[in-house]
Amino acid sequence: MSDDDCCHESFITETSAEMRVAYILQVILNSAVSLLLLRAVRSRRERHVPAHPNFKILIANAAVATWTFTTFSALTSSILLFNSFRATPENCATLMSRSTCLLLRIPGSFPIPMFTSVHMMLFIERCVAFLMKSSYEKQMKIMGVTFTVIAWTFCFPFEFIMIGKVDPKEKVAHCVLSAKDAVPFYVLFLEITTLVDIGTTLGDLLLRCRARRSVRKTREIANFENYTLSKAYQRNENLRLMTMMVPISTVFAGGHFVFVYTALRIRSWLPVYARFRLGDDPSPEALGRLGIAVSELNMSVFLLLLFTVTRMYILMGEKLMNEKQATTNRPNHAVTFSLFEDQMNSHLMAKRRESRPISVPNMGKV
């Protein structure tokens, strides 16, 4: 395709109503998520979330990945929208080189694998906490840092594979990260991450059931002999966190499935909309342009999902803090612990007396 033809193709694609609506929605939604995160970080000193350092580190990684993705994506969409409005058939304002396109897309797309990775790592972290109840609070603090290094390191090969072959001098009619040769990998990535998200959600549900059963057993009198405050605290923390995490992982997995299913099925649904938008017999080129615009519109589904999940995480932190504050402010909690300890000691002493063998005295000969 010559430069003139590419310029004309880019102008028609980027100035369509669907494309402009897609860019406007992306700017609004990306900015909303970014500002929501900044507001949460700004007010972090006003609350102390009672959770293990590993859990906090992984949540912080999710926040950094989300903020990076939404902030740079909002900037990219703003530039593309600005070019769309100032473009004319003659000035080729929407046409750009492949290298310029990558400079716009790479910063925002780099943390994409973190969205699924963080939920999977949170599940693994809670599994380890469940299995190592007595020692987890004082040990294993390096796990969060290790997971962080592994997850962000994985983003580098993902980015290179997603980009595909690069010709810096190539002119692109529409700026996307992946070249045509990398599209099959992108489709595979969407399918795998969706399955991982669904599997993580099922794992969270199972772990929550196990944690609830463990807490019930701890409260039984028969288990008082093996009772320790560290184990009880870890069991209660697992149940509390998993009760809050299950809705979040369920919403994310469900929203991700809808986004991926729609993205993969757009081509089969496109002719129906094309007949309404372009007439009864649209050309293949017109169908291609419309497909690109609808794909950009579909990104709004994922951005709405990010906004919802981010808000749920913030509410989870506030709820944890409120529960901690209510426990701290509860009157006579020291006396309550003392009475509980006396009750347990009395129970253990009674059990020892019951289990002590009864000796029959030797009466001797009469």
From TrEMBL:
Q: Which domain of life is it from?
A: Eukaryota
Q: Which InterPro entries match?
A: 7TM_GPCR_serpentine_rcpt_Srab (IPR019408), Nematode_rcpt-like_serp_alpha (IPR051080)
GO MF terms held by the record: olfactory receptor activity
Instruction: Name the major location.
Output: membrane
Cellular component, GO annotation: membrane
Q: Which Pfam families match?
A: 7TM_GPCR_Srab (PF10292)
Report keywords, A-Z. Membrane, Transmembrane, Transmembrane helix
What topology in the membrane does the UniProt record assign?
A: Multi-pass membrane protein
Ranges that cross the membrane = 20-38, 58-82, 102-124, 145-163, 183-207, 241-266, 286-314
Q: Where in the cell is it found?
A: Membrane
Similarity-based family: Belongs to the nematode receptor-like protein sra family.
Per its record, how is this protein called by name? (pine wood nematode) hypothetical protein
Species of origin reads Bursaphelenchus xylophilus (Pinewood nematode worm)
